[in-house]
């Protein structure tokens, strides 16, 4: 491959063999990106990658179960070995519930008839599968994780992280999906692509810690809500460098981090209330 090809950006797309994932793979590939299509089905993945590039120079399939840390680690190593860089991870893989924690169908079971172990495939893919590469969590958790960690990751690693909140879209994940929604309640594929492009096309890496929601043909930005306690809780949002250095071996370097204990702290004023103090 020539030098121009070597300069092309590389994206890993989990759950990339169908639906939204493959649509994003097609979109990025058409824009000149090299894409690693990640999924569990080797036959389908190889077919989709070959559709984009039969020579496997700009599109390749990587078999991986995102619920497995070792599988994800091997996948990342393989992509790096193939193209020598990584510019974008779209953690798109997921599934619907395979079981239930609630066991509503077993209300009449005897007390000693314990239910089977819940199938946590959904949790493993959505939550653990995202946490393994240290890029986020899931649903409400991912939004908060992104907001909290975005400044630090950008400062330390020059990595930007953002969230696309996905509305209902027709994909192969559920049969008869369209029957459960009115047409105007379904997110259009073009809207999803538009949301991702807000971050993908941010060549200067200015956007980070942001969340955008998709809804039919519109996008809505999620702003960080204010604390109900106002200035009383401002301190809770700031990194305390002495603690950070102890935990991570170096300071955070964040502009708003507290370098030392604030004057008039609780210990200085004698206003210390600790759980367990004075208890018998």
Automatic annotation (TrEMBL):
GO terms for molecular function: oxidoreductase activity. InterPro entries: NAD(P)-bd_dom_sf, SDR_fam. Pfam families: adh_short (PF00106). Keywords: Oxidoreductase. It comes from the Eukaryota. Belongs to the short-chain dehydrogenases/reductases (SDR) family. PANTHER family: 5-KETO-D-GLUCONATE 5-REDUCTASE, ALCOHOL DEHYDROGENASE, PUTATIVE (AFU_ORTHOLOGUE AFUA_3G03445)-RELATED. This is 15-hydroxyprostaglandin dehydrogenase [NAD(+)]. It comes from Chaetomidium leptoderma.
